[in-house]
Model the fold of this input.
Amino acid sequence: MSPNRAAVSFTRAAAHAGDRLLDEILAGLTAQPKFLYPKFFYDERGSILFDAICELPEYYLTRTETAILSERAPSFMRALGPGLRLIEPGSGSSAKTRILLDAMQTPASYVCVDISRSHLMAAAQALTARYPQVEILPVCADFTQPFEIPEGTTPAQSRLVFFPGSTIGNFDRDEAVALLAMMRDLAGMDGRLLVGADLRKSPRILEAAYNDAAGVTASFNLNLLARLNHEFGADFDLDAFVHRAPWVEEESRIEMHLVSTRRQTVHIGGTEIGFEDGESIWTESCHKYDRVQFSALAREAGLDVIDVWTDREERFSVQLLATI
Ligand code: TRP
Done:
């Protein structure tokens, strides 16, 4: 069998070898309005800060999703039977995956795909120790670009693609559709997708989740500039930018920005980037869907919603999807 190829074409992604990352950064910083790709958040410090966000009192998403999975996933996973291949794009520390792995019937395999190599390898090592009966197959890749799934030695009878954390909401609608279609291909005709999606709710609750009192989300956002300084030789003054994360009703999303607190010039890769006082770099969007909107999104990707798991207050949803 040939390895699976997952391919998504992203409108904003520049694809050159070598200086590709710097090209992508410069493309964003010279665009109008300025933006940076969220994947640049996840250097080692960024991945650690991200895990800290998930523990924040205001950040209900992780806690709620974990509770839903703990309640619903064990019997669901058992029913899938042995020979399952679990695939997770953007696996990070694979914390929620343990809920699924705990209930998986063996033999089984788990393909974890993440952009942060150190984080990925540490997670894979811990999982190999904890689940010796599951074949753990780490892949260091940017899941928005084509990547290969290793065969491993455990034959797969069925596939489940796991995409928790409302990461789907971090993409624009077109990108989200392309990504869901890519995951549909990864799962194959009879495969399933389990996708975590935060639900639309009061702006007060949403804004609190992305503007925590301890300032961890602000540190996470600003770490992007620190990374550009030490990895790409930029000279951002971290004291001259602030974190902003407003709810934008018309777009049904939280927008994360780094706003310049004065007129200034920054240098990166031999390019001068000018900032007006109050000008922002748009770093992330967190789209929120209601059930109907989400199932329309899935449909565009050739997927049917076959079940929705939620908490009692309907804050968060875990959507079970299958090829139409
Ligand atoms: N996908 C999650 C969300 O939309 C987690 C996340 C991604 C996040 N990027 C973030 C949380 C930036 C805070 C800040 O909430």
